[in-house]
């Protein structure tokens, strides 16, 4: 899943520790269900989009599949992600869909991740082009400044002569 690779690069391996390198659809859903990676990815693409991200909850519940998950963290992070995503015009889903294995919801989540990946790449690419043009303009400015100094010195030499 290329989305998983992008997600791991975007939020970092530490934040994406619950997401295997090549996850199945079920592992992908399990990695996203607490909302932490979703919130972090959205904040990387749009800093501050999700103002409150619950990182270290106090009360954990052990689920049948063996994963520790705080109900508060799950609902708070997923709700915050969905509100921010809706404000940004991203495709959204129901919070309960992460616990129900619905292919449609996974596709919607994946589409949202692809959209964020595309926007992140586009914005990063535009930033690179802008920085390149600024660097080019700065190097030309230095040449123009040196030429102006040379002309000024020539005018001064003509005045003295």
UniProtKB/TrEMBL annotation:
Highest taxon in the source lineage: Eukaryota
InterPro entries tied to this protein: CH_dom (IPR001715), CH_dom_sf (IPR036872), Kinesin-like_fam (IPR027640)
Gene Ontology MF term list: microtubule binding; microtubule motor activity
Gene3D superfamilies xrefs: Calponin-like domain
GO cellular component, one term: microtubule cytoskeleton
GO biological process: microtubule-based movement
TM region positions: none
Domain Calponin-homology (CH), chain residue ranges per copy: 1-122
Protein name: Calponin-homology (CH) domain-containing protein
């Amino acid at each position: 899943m290329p989305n998983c690779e992008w997600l791991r690069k975007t939020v970092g391996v530490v934040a994406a520790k619950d997401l295997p390198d090549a996850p199945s659809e079920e592992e992908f859903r399990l990695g996203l269900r607490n909302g932490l990676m979703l919130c972090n990815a959205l904040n990387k693409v749009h800093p501050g989009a999700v103002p409150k991200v619950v990182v270290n909850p106090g009360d954990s519940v052990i689920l049948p599949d063996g994963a520790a998950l705080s109900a508060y963290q799950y609902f708070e992070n997923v709700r915050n992600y969905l509100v921010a995503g809706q404000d940004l015009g991203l495709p959204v889903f129901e919070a309960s869909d992460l616990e129900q294995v619905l292919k449609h919801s996974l596709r919607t989540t994946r589409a949202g991740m692809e959209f964020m990946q595309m926007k992140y790449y586009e914005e990063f690419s535009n930033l690179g082009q802008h920085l390149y043009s600024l660097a080019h303009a700065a190097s030309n400015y230095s040449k123009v400044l040196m030429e102006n100094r040379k002309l000024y010195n020539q005018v001064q030499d003509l005045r003295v002569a």
